[in-house]
Specification:
The protein has 139 residues and is mainly beta. Helix content is 0%, strand content 29%. The protein has no helices and nine strands. The strands form two sheets. The chain has a five-stranded mixed beta sheet, with no helix packed on it.
């Protein structure tokens, strides 16, 4: 038995009416766009994982989950602050905060440091004392 689905007639085997098949898709003269696969954000070189940072916020970081922080704007001329963690006070982070995609670094040698020598949008924390907790802010 011949199927009439797609011809605007009822099908003998399904008793359904096809309303969707008039004309052709895509319309003649229009090239269909290729589907775009979602792209994961790049993990910067030297970073095991990257945490997204909300500009201007004091943010507690667990470096065991991600050693790098992605910032939505360039740090050139901006202030960066690093504190010992309040949430994990049993260790005090000491080490270096370095730009991954720009230039500059900040040595963290006390419970609070501040500087404006970094540029770029991704920074990496390197602990010298195995402490994985730190608080960060940029503005």
């Amino acid at each position: 038995m011949e199927s009439n689905i797609g011809r605007g007639r009822a099908s003998a085997d399904t008793n359904l009416w096809c309303h969707c098949c008039w004309g052709s898709w895509p319309p003649e003269g229009v090239d269909p766009e290729e589907p775009v696969d979602p792209v994961d954000p790049p993990v910067s070189e030297g970073c095991d994982a990257v945490t997204q940072y909300s500009w201007g916020q004091k943010m507690e970081l667990d470096l065991s989950h991600a050693s790098c922080l992605a910032i939505d704007r360039d740090l050139a001329g901006k202030t960066v602050q690093v504190w010992d963690s309040d949430a994990n006070s049993y260790c005090d982070f000491r080490g270096t905060l370095s730009s991954v995609d720009g230039s500059g670094s900040i040595s963290v040698t006390s419970n609070y440091v501040s500087g404006n020598t970094l540029s770029g949008k991704v920074v990496k924390f390197g602990s010298s004392n195995h402490c994985q907790y730190v608080k960060f802010r940029s503005y």
